[in-house]
UniProtKB/TrEMBL annotation:
This is Transcriptional regulator, TetR family. Coiled coil: none annotated. Residues 10-70 form the HTH tetR-type domain. It comes from Stappia indica. It comes from the Bacteria. InterPro entries: Homeodomain-like_sf (IPR009057), HTH-type_TetR-like_transc_reg (IPR050109), HTH_TetR (IPR001647), KstR2_TetR_C (IPR041490), Tet_transcr_reg_TetR-rel_C_sf (IPR036271).
Length: 200
């Protein structure tokens, strides 16, 4: 008979994932060891292995949980009755806010996913595609010409917006001159003005 899970199982799992993400981001996936992770979490290696058999399992769960949190945040960032512009701004703001305190997870998603088996990569890429679909839908709602038959603009415009948002962690500083809300407005305005100009 399987032993029942402790009441704090999920909390401990999330704490292990957070510490692992920070260590992978700081030292690199190859150099960070299960021993370092156990020490960082303040748990025994035996307990760590109770949760995760190896680093690959940790890596997959870090990226999967991160993407699930991004999708949930973005889906809550807008409502169907919003205009396309309002929806896009809501999505951008929600994504930027979801990235708060998630720089390590974001860095790992970008740099380390390729280390996973193809089947797991595909599962994670399906989640990435869901995010792209949400933003592409808002963009085509705001600028319908992007999605007209024969137009090739929707994908490059959508991916350009992701480039603006996904790499903000390289320069953005919490408490600096530009807030997340400020940058959400900037990114939304830049992409919409540019898209409307291209589609004209």
């Amino acid at each position: 008979m399987a032993r029942p899970r402790a009441e704090d199982y999920d909390d401990k799992r999330k704490a292990i994932l957070k510490t692992s993400a920070e260590l992978f981001a700081e030292h690199g996936f190859d150099r960070a060891s299960m021993n370092q992770i156990a020490l960082g979490c303040g748990v025994s290696k035996a307990l760590l292995y109770h949760y995760y058999a190896n680093k690959d399992a940790l890596l997959f769960d870090i990226i999967r949980d991160h993407l699930d949190e991004l999708i949930a945040a973005v889906e809550e960032g807008a409502t169907p009755e919003m205009t396309g512009e309002e929806m896009l701004h809501g999505y951008v703001l929600a994504l930027l806010d979801a990235y708060r305190d998630a720089n390590a997870e974001h860095k790992i998603q970008i740099n380390e996913m390729k280390r996973l088996p193809a089947e797991q990569q595909e599962e994670l890429k399906a989640r990435e595609r869901r995010l792209v679909q949400l933003f592409a839908g808002a963009l085509s709602h705001a600028v319908p010409q992007l999605a007209e038959p024969g137009s090739t603009l929707l994908k490059p415009v959508t991916m350009s917006l992701f480039g603006m948002v996904n790499w903000h962690y390289l320069w953005f500083r919490e408490g600096g001159a530009v807030s997340r809300a400020d940058y959400a407005r900037i990114a939304t305005r830049l992409i919409l003005d540019g898209a409307r100009s291209l589609a004209a």
